[in-house]
């Protein structure tokens, strides 16, 4: 039974370590634009078969991401956009697929390609990477429409350069990939284009991570891990004592 108790304690320690890793990731992104906190939980897994019915393993569970809004930060930057609740900016992921993000601190490459701060191409309403020709002034409307005054043209010459693909989807209806981007759940249809006002121009949404609560969680998981390691040590000591008694007979 000692080896079984060691295994049960080991699953608890492993779950605590994984939870600590998720909390550490949240803390590391407390200042990342548009970042949404990873939710962590543990699940009790009763052990069937030979042994006491009180034996329960612990399994880590990724419970999705927090849908709580982050702080609205006014920047005045023409390229910055803060997405409204349940609104997502469509981007082209490194593998070529369509993914979604709330990071609205956008950039323009030397060739006029609109990208995220991380270099991912931003998609237009038609699903193609969005390029903006040389301009004198530019503005992004609340529905994602981009208007510019072309370079060398009078201020009265305003033309529409494209429209951001902003989709409507609940956070719970999307899943986060290993690359940090959100995608539609397997087998689900792509989210539809959002109608009406979908963003606030000249601002970005800050991370929704509460650093204080994450630090408290980190301490709690550290204490849990310490207790589970003590159980492992106690089990090992009991096994040594048992072996010593058997060898003395």
From TrEMBL:
InterPro entries: Flag_bb_rod_N (IPR001444), Flagellar_FlgE/F/G (IPR020013), Flg_bb/hook_C_dom (IPR010930), FlgE/F/G-like (IPR037925), LlgE_F_G-like_D1 (IPR053967). It comes from Cognatilysobacter xinjiangensis. This is Flagellar basal-body rod protein FlgF. Residues 180-202 are annotated as: Disordered. Residues 201-245 form the Flagellar basal-body/hook protein C-terminal domain. It is found in: Bacterial flagellum basal body. Keywords: Bacterial flagellum, Cell projection, Cilium, Flagellum. Residues 184-198 have a biased composition (Low complexity). The basal body constitutes a major portion of the flagellar organelle and consists of five rings (E,L,P,S, and M) mounted on a central rod. The rod consists of about 26 subunits of FlgG in the distal portion, and FlgB, FlgC and FlgF are thought to build up the proximal portion of the rod with about 6 subunits each. Belongs to the flagella basal body rod proteins family. Residues 87-147 form the Flagellar hook protein FlgE/F/G-like D1 domain. Residues 6-36 form the Flagellar basal body rod protein N-terminal domain.
């Amino acid at each position: 039974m000692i080896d079984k108790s060691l295994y049960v304690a080991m699953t608890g320690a492993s779950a605590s370590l994984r939870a600590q890793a998720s909390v550490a990731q949240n803390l590391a992104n407390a200042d990342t634009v548009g970042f949404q906190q990873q939710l962590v939980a543990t699940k009790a897994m009763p052990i069937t078969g030979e042994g006491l019915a009180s034996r329960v393993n612990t399994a880590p569970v990724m419970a999705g991401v927090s849908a709580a809004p982050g702080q609205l930060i006014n920047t005045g930057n023409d390229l910055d956009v803060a997405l409204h609740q349940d609104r997502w900016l469509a981007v082209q992921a490194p593998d070529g697929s369509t993914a979604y993000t709330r990071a609205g601190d956008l950039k323009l490459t030397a060739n006029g390609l609109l990208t995220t701060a991380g270099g991912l191409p931003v998609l237009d309403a038609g699903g193609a990477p969005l390029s903006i020709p040389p301009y004198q002034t530019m503005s992004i409307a609340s529905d994602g429409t981009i208007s510019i005054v072309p370079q060398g043209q009078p201020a009265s010459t305003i033309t529409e350069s494209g429209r951001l693909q902003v989709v409507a989807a609940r956070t719970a209806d999307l899943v986060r990939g290993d690359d940090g981007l959100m995608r539609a759940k397997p087998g689900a249809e792509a989210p539809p284009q959002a109608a009406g006002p979908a963003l606030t121009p000249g601002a970005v949404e800050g991370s929704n991570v509460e650093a204080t609560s994450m630090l408290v969680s980190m301490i709690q998981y550290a204490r849990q891990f310490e207790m589970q390691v003590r159980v492992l040590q106690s089990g090992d000591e009991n096994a040594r004592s048992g072996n010593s008694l058997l060898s003395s007979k």
